Amino acid sequence: MTLLYQSHSPYARKVLVSAHELGLADSIAVVHHETSPTNRNNAVFAANPLGKVPVLLTPDAGALFDSVVICDYLDRLAGTGRLIPREGPARYEALRLQALAQGLCDAGIALRWETLRRPEALRYPPLAQGQAMKLLEAYEHLETQVELGARITIGEIALATALAWLEFRDLPGFRTRAPRLTAWHDDFCRRPSMRATPYDGETQDGGPQ
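User: That's the sequence. What structure does it adopt?
Assistant: Structure tokens below.
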């Protein structure tokens, strides 16, 4: 298998951490690709019409995207249920946590557009404030409403990689607001799968399309 990857993408890192946790990392060739909405990557578009990574090129299912689909494929390949519980409340707890983590990344990316990546004259501060509020509300929910650490699931992997990315990008933080969440995150980041997949690099935006 080949994984079209980006070393500063939280979605791509979630896939690679999952592969490590499932014992599949040695079966995947990781190829870094720079992409952004303003920087077309033809190799990625050839595999994914959305032009985004991650994409997993498989021998039996073709090109798979996005990270949710890829992680489901890897979990089934390793033996269904190892990261995504097969049924019952545990399944939906894991999927709900994954959705929350994806939402953290989505909000963080939108916030970066309004505070850094978009030309300053085109930025809209109320939108930036709204995205920042999503982050802070999610931190509060995770601190007070979510139990972590009982079992490693796709939800925990997604959350750990999301929180690490938010710190990597110096976005509104969780440490002073959520000490219990912080302790769990720091412990998770000591796992070999996380140590093997550090964030690196900057988004390479292009000119007007």
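The helical segments are 10-21, 42-47, 67-79, 88-117, 125-145, 154-168, 179-188, 192-195.
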